[in-house]
Design brief:
The chain is α/β, with parallel strands linked by helices. Helices cover 23% and strands 32% of the residues. It has helices at 14-31, 51-60, 79-82, 111-121, and strands spanning 7-12, 41-47, 65-74, 85-89, 99-107, 127-135, 148-152, 158-159, 175-179. The strands form 2 sheets. The chain has a 6-stranded mixed sheet, with helices on both faces. Helix 1 crosses helix 2 (51-60). It is globular and about 60 Å long. 28% of the residues are buried. The structure holds 1-O-pyrophosphono-5-O-phosphono-alpha-D-ribofuranose (PRP). The site of 1-O-pyrophosphono-5-O-phosphono-alpha-D-ribofuranose has 16 residues, from strand 2, strand 5 and helix 4.
Length: 183
């Protein structure tokens, strides 16, 4: 029996993440000026990975926001290329007429965000944009517009700040490359 040794190496420090999230929050605040009587900007988080980013991003946005969450899972083992996505949890509330920001931890092939964008657009939001902490453009299969991107990263398996390997590492405060495991 061979034993795999997990190696974890910081790629983006907690301080770098914090600085970048503050910057994204400033941009979002400027892009969604608040007028009296406006409903809150809806931050729609994609479970589970996005919740850490969403929690920090929300506190960097200087206007009213509300939270809602979506869950998705992919069919079969070759999900990445099949693009067959199933909703495991829908938003709790209606989004018609609302400004909606879909919040992701990472956009890889783009299949998830493409599917979710189509799903939400059918409900006639006033606007729909995507904010993602991480973007792996080299893996993209679909050209999805990303309005707010924290960091572009190379094609490495990353964990931390919400991202997991077998449900572990989500609580790391940084983003780290994980090697020595079968992914
Ligand atoms: C990750 C991530 C996105 C999706 C991106 O979720 O949060 O939802 O994969 O991949 P794509 O661009 O190739 O579609 P994951 O399945 O790891 O679930 P989790 O957030 O619960 O860990």
């Amino acid at each position: 029996m061979t034993r795999e040794i997990e190696q974890v190496e910081t790629l983006i420090s907690a301080q770098q993440i914090q600085d970048r999230v503050e910057e994204l929050g400033r941009r979002i605040t400027a892009d969604y000026p608040e007028r009296m009587g406006d409903p809150p900007l809806l931050l729609a988080g994609v479970l589970k990975g996005s919740i850490v980013f969403l929690a920090d991003l929300a506190r960097a946005i200087r206007r009213h926001v509300s939270f809602d969450f979506l869950g998705v899972s992919s069919y079969g083992s070759s999900t990445e290329s099949s693009g067959e996505i199933r909703l495991t949890k829908d938003l709790d509330g209606e989004i018609e007429g609302l400004d909606v920001l879909l919040v992701e931890d990472i956009v890889d092939t783009g299949l998830t965000i493409e599917w979710l964008s189509n799903h939400l657009r059918r409900r006639n939001p006033k606007s729909l944009r995507v904010a993602t902490l991480l973007d792996k453009p080299s893996r993209r299969l679909r050209p999805v517009p990303l309005a707010y991107v924290g960091f572009e990263i190379p094609d490495e398996f990353v964990v931390g700040y919400g991202l997991d390997y077998a449900q572990r590492y989500r609580n790391r405060p940084d983003i780290a490359v994980l090697r020595g495991v079968s992914t």
